[in-house]
Amino acid sequence: MSGATATERLRERVSARLRGTQPGGDPLAVLLHGVPPEHAAALRRQVPERLARAAVLVPIVERPEGLTVLLTLRASHLKHHAGQISFPGGRMEAHDLGPWEAALRETEEEIGLAREFVSLVGYLSDHMVPSGFHITPAVGFVRPGFELRLDSTEVEEVFEVPLEFILDPRHHLPRDREFKGFTIITYEIPYEGRHIWGATAQMLVNLARLLGEP
Fold it and tell me: pTM here?
């Protein structure tokens, strides 16, 4: 890509690394990254065989000044993950044709992002969260010009973080967390007074690792 801008080069890298990826993978792999094998095996035995399926959209907005990732702040009264920073998405329904359709539907319902502005890039590895969900993250490029209509019962606000900031490993702060009697390594990504943590941070770190591989 001779003469390409930094934004164009980053977009091409995202496309190249995610092109052809399919939903699936070990949902515990990201959560247990860095955990000693004997502890990982013990944790796997404690996880229920059947987990509720969910899908989220990892929206990469194609701003003229650079790529950004759109995130939501969940409403403080929700039963699960209240007040946390997350991707738009939620539980898969029987009528959804797959994770991509579920992610688009939930995104439209939560923040009003019309699906015609979103194009599928690929998928990150499935992820399990301690609340009992098996999540498939679908990555999509979002064309500017969209308008948002937030469902205040689920989302308090939305904001964007530069993708370059997220990809910088210096911003991935490791944190120890207790999970079913064992210590696992999670991450926190602070940005302008906000703290991205939990499954959202894990998925972003996973994206950064994928894009950073030679």
Answer: 0.90
